[in-house]
Amino acid sequence: MLTFHSERTKKRDAMTELDGGRLVRPFECPERVDIIIDRVRATDLGEIRAPEEYGLDPVLAIHDAGYVHFLERAWDDWSAAGMEGEAIPTIWPTRRMRGDVIPDTIAGEIGYYALAAETSLCAGTFEAAQASTDIALSALDHVMATGNPAFGLCRPPGHHAAVDQYGGYCFFNNAAIAAQRALDRGAAKVAVLDIDFHHGNGTQDIFYDRDDVLFVSLHGDPRQEFPFFLGHADETGTGAGRGFNVNYPLPSGTGYADWSETLDEAIARVHRYQPDLLIVSVGVDTFEHDPISSFRLISEDFTDIGRRLRRAGMPTLFLMEGGYAIAEIGINTVNLLSGFDSA
Ligand SMILES: NCCCNCCCCCC(O)(O)C(F)(F)F
Ligand SMILES: [Zn+2]
């Protein structure tokens, strides 16, 4: 399988993540890219290619312009305001506050655009996020041109990024940007299957009222797991999009027997939709030793996931999302991709 990769994805190297009341080194660290690409090379998964550069137009086709330009200048504005640490919001437009007036100062503006507080902004964030979209778009164009699968080693990830919000380590929704480009390039229907441990609230938000993108997600039950406030089974879409959003929340401790049964249901739902393209948001934080997640998949299970996805028999684009068991992230990710190739 062809892999798209760029060292520019490592430009975001935040020093802090708010975790349990302490500022710790981020779980979503640049080394994740090195470990995965080393495993791709070590296993001869296939050719590794640098992405083309697509600029901001494909990003602006999905994300709000004010949001994109906020991200572009946020670190400079934060620094210019004399803040000495990395950029972390402390107030949000919560219940019965107003979300229709965007504050002028960065301390207020950051809360308007932030989904959560664990994702610090720092120098290089915008550049890395844009490189991640270039990877997703390059991989998409390859799948559209050849019908062959491709893997976009995206970092930072994207599935929590909503139209005008960042958080959960995500800034631009790579899968949504790729799906929109596929539609712009003539696809009639695109399915996004999100197998990351966490619900892809951003991807759901972006396509919730649309029937040209089916969003299907297996994830930790939001009553117990991040992002907590979206991802329930009764969220099925709205307007034209009703019936084209499918959530499969699963309890903490879910093992592969139950998880794979749900995956087969999800694949059957994708099949009924008959998409021109399947985009898989690949998170391997479903792994038993993931430090921030609570499912119990083992490394061999990822190979089987790849096999099951291949049997779905559609042009497939794999885009990297989460996974924080650093020692095994390469093995688990490449197991999935190799399983797909070998099925
Ligand atoms: N500090 C420990 C609590 C972590 N709370 C945020 C979890 C974010 C998960 C991100 C992800 O894995 O879903 C993605 F794929 F987007 F990277
Ligand atoms: Zn995740």
TrEMBL record:
Coiled coil: none annotated. Its cofactor is Zn(2+). Transmembrane segments: none annotated. The keyword Hydrolase applies. CDD domains: HDAC_classII_APAH (cd10001). Keywords: Hydrolase, Metal-binding, Zinc. Residues 28-329 form the Histone deacetylase domain. PANTHER family: HISTONE DEACETYLASE 8, HISTONE DEACETYLASE HDAC1-RELATED. Belongs to the histone deacetylase family. This is Histone deacetylase family protein. It comes from Salinisphaera aquimarina.
